[in-house]
Amino acid sequence: MNQILDGLYAITPDASPSAEALTKQVAQAIEGGARVIQYRDKHSDHTGREARASALLALCRASGVALIVNDDLELARKLGADGVHLGRDDPDPRQARALLGRQAIIGVSCYDDFSRAEAAAEAGASYVAFGSFFPSTTKPNAVAADPGLLTLAREHLPIPPVAIGGITPQNGGLLISAGARMLAVVSGVFAQPDIASAARAYTTLFPKETH
Ligand SMILES: Cc1ncc(COP(=O)(O)OP(=O)(O)O)c(N)n1
Ligand SMILES: Cc1ncsc1CCOP(=O)(O)O
Ligand SMILES: [Mg+2]
């Protein structure tokens, strides 16, 4: 699992297109080297989310890439996705581990709070996410985080830290230098005219073996 949790982590955009259009966009992100995809959808109803997530899961399986479902633990379980990402308003990571099993990837949002990351590691999380490191158009009210958290996590936690929030190919390098094992990106990938090239600009920031 540790090998997968390295590199570009592409998160699907807010304006959720049809399952077919979304799958095409995600295929381009994978072509550009994304290692993990998160299906994040705050707008579709249950049926729409299930249709999109299962189309993405088929693509990810065929491409050898992991699919993480944001927020919706039950959907992740039902589809047999590779894991789930949980924030402070979402189910508890212990509950997720119990439901999804030992192999599942369970990510936990820690914002700017290192003690939350320690608790998440203790609860069986697979990775911890910190951010927002830069102003984000996707989540303008996200709490601001300091890159030093990534260094602290690399030094003191047994699981990899993920960086999120306003990350561009220009500012991503400093987060990797600070300790980020993955860069989680929405608009820097999916709001770009050439999604594959946009993804590639992030993947080349990482050491060669991760892309
Ligand atoms: C990799 C990653 N990190 C952080 C988040 C944010 O999760 P959360 O705080 O639950 O907010 P929403 O994404 O649900 O709006 C994430 N999704 N992915
Ligand atoms: C979900 C989330 N949590 C903190 S910032 C953010 C959005 C990241 O999107 P972008 O890469 O467009 O800033
Ligand atoms: Mg959430």
TrEMBL record:
This is Thiamine-phosphate synthase. 4-amino-2-methyl-5-(diphosphooxymethyl)pyrimidine binds at Q38, Y39, R40, D41, K42, N70, S109, K139. It is an enzyme of class 2 (transferase). It comes from the Bacteria. It comes from Thiorhodococcus drewsii AZ1. Keywords: Magnesium, Metal-binding, Thiamine biosynthesis, Transferase. Its EC number is 2.5.1.3. Pathway: Cofactor biosynthesis; thiamine diphosphate biosynthesis; thiamine phosphate from 4-amino-2-methyl-5-diphosphomethylpyrimidine and 4-methyl-5-(2-phosphoethyl)-thiazole: step 1/1. The keyword Magnesium applies. Mg(2+) binds at D71, D90. CDD domains: TMP_TenI. It holds the Pfam family TMP-TENI. 2-[(2R,5Z)-2-carboxy-4-methylthiazol-5(2H)-ylidene]ethyl phosphate binds at S136, T137, T138, G166, V186, S187. Transmembrane segments: none annotated. One of its GO terms (molecular function) is thiamine-phosphate diphosphorylase activity. Residues 8-189 form the Thiamine phosphate synthase/TenI domain.
